Amino acid sequence: MRLDKFLGITGCCSRSDAKRIIRSGGVSVNGSVAKSADMSMDPDVDTVIFRGQTVVYRRYTYIMLNKPEGVVSATEDGRDRTVLDLLPEEIPKANLFPCGRLDKYTLGLMLITDNGVLGHRLLAPKSHVSKEYYFRAKHPISREDADRFEKGLTLEDGYETKPAKIELRGDGNEGVITLVEGKYHQIKRMLEALGNKITYLERIRFGPLLLDSALERGEWRYLTAEEIAMLESHGSSQL
To answer: What's the sign of the alpha-carbon dihedral 202, 207, 213, 218?
Structure first.
């Protein structure tokens, strides 16, 4: 692998910045100062120091994105921007995919990865990975309707949802909903089954991952080593 590509995919800097930093002596490989951005290196064997810090190479990419409105959860789309379009060009996107979906107008936490095995485990129905959403509704939700919601509802197509959790806040027209499944437009359809309507929806947690409050809409960051460990452990423990 080229050194500048390695620095790009590990999040150290863009590939264009890598050339400048390498020329200034800011990168070393196996104890020797790197001279060229296109030098070949083995990420599984070689030790790379970037501006005094050892670069940790991981086989898979894990990205947390704060999805904005109007962007679709897909790898490509003929009409709208996708979550992958929000990532910089230097990140290889060929194998990346959004782990789960948020509809075009739902905001918040989106996990993007190229670990297909883990993604499958996290999304498998039998895994019951919980997701939390902050919501606002058109009308206040009564305690009676909240109890119905938590026991599971029958949607307009006859599907019976699994029990879910709803925590009401304020005057009852906002709160946090926790699901262990993810059917198409499920929360919106569940509120409609109660004669109500969602006016705002934002995912704030996916499994063990909490949305980073420092991320503005459309911003992203790589997961930390601790977050990756929690995610991988969570995915394994759910099966």
So the answer is: negative
